[in-house]
Amino acid sequence: MSRILVVDDEPYLSDLVATALRYAGFETAIAATGAAAVAMTGSFEPDLIVLDVMLPDVLGTEVCRRIRAAGAEASVVFLTARDATEDKIGGLTVGGDDYVTKPFSLEELIARIRAVLRRTERAEPDGGLLSFRDLVIDEDAYEVRRGGALLDLTPTEFKLLRFLVVNAGRVVTKRQILDHVWEYDFGGNDGVVQTYISYLRRKVDVVDPPLIHTVPRVGYVLRLPREA
């Protein structure tokens, strides 16, 4: 049974969401503030956090930063009343895995939660090693190393990099990445892919040669740089 922490300062909404999740088979807990959410992440040890962006003491994005800095590996689904693309991407760039815009249906939220848990589930890795040059993905240990150095990746970054390695030398489109990494229609927001590719480059391509390359107007490919 996956554990889900619901963080929202509206008691009616948090109770409603928590009750629906319990009926869906999840173990739930509730926090009304950012500070309580950070504390309960350590004590409750959730697998996923449903996190409102607008909390009374601190923004949900800051809560996400804090729990990530503390080493928490729980997935995060943001709840936001904002519909601007930059606000949505902002939540994902601090370590969130998805967002749901208010107002939302409970069915949609539960479906999103299940999708995130499926793609970040660590209990059932494919097993074995995947590699490209000096980049090695150990699926059993859920670790990525480049040149022997351990890389600190979020679950979504791990899955994105795995998809690139499996398709090394082959150009994959943003739509293919959305379908295989996010596993559902992401509303055409391919800016999310660009953001995560940027994050991967900062971690994977810190040493030469760079491996992740953009093919203009097509997509991305994992390969060695081409000779000039």
From TrEMBL:
<dbReference type="InterPro" id="IPR039420">
    <property type="entry name" value="WalR-like"/>
</dbReference>
<keyword id="KW-0805">Transcription regulation</keyword>
<feature type="modified residue" description="4-aspartylphosphate">
    <location>
        <position position="52"/>
    </location>
</feature>
<dbReference type="Pfam" id="PF00486">
    <property type="entry name" value="Trans_reg_C"/>
</dbReference>
<dbReference type="GO" id="GO:0006355">
    <property type="term" value="P:regulation of DNA-templated transcription"/>
</dbReference>
<dbReference type="InterPro" id="IPR001789">
    <property type="entry name" value="Sig_transdc_resp-reg_receiver"/>
</dbReference>
<dbReference type="GO" id="GO:0000156">
    <property type="term" value="F:phosphorelay response regulator activity"/>
</dbReference>
<protein>
    <submittedName>
        <fullName>DNA-binding response regulator</fullName>
    </submittedName>
</protein>
<feature type="DNA-binding region" description="OmpR/PhoB-type">
    <location>
        <begin position="127"/>
        <end position="224"/>
    </location>
</feature>
<keyword id="KW-0597">Phosphoprotein</keyword>
<keyword id="KW-0804">Transcription</keyword>
<feature type="domain" description="OmpR/PhoB-type">
    <location>
        <begin position="127"/>
        <end position="224"/>
    </location>
</feature>
<keyword id="KW-0902">Two-component regulatory system</keyword>
<dbReference type="GO" id="GO:0032993">
    <property type="term" value="C:protein-DNA complex"/>
</dbReference>
<keyword id="KW-0238">DNA-binding</keyword>
<dbReference type="InterPro" id="IPR036388">
    <property type="entry name" value="WH-like_DNA-bd_sf"/>
</dbReference>
<dbReference type="InterPro" id="IPR001867">
    <property type="entry name" value="OmpR/PhoB-type_DNA-bd"/>
</dbReference>
<dbReference type="GO" id="GO:0000976">
    <property type="term" value="F:transcription cis-regulatory region binding"/>
</dbReference>
<dbReference type="InterPro" id="IPR011006">
    <property type="entry name" value="CheY-like_superfamily"/>
</dbReference>
<dbReference type="GO" id="GO:0005829">
    <property type="term" value="C:cytosol"/>
</dbReference>
<dbReference type="InterPro" id="IPR016032">
    <property type="entry name" value="Sig_transdc_resp-reg_C-effctor"/>
</dbReference>
<feature type="domain" description="Response regulatory">
    <location>
        <begin position="3"/>
        <end position="117"/>
    </location>
</feature>
<dbReference type="Pfam" id="PF00072">
    <property type="entry name" value="Response_reg"/>
</dbReference>
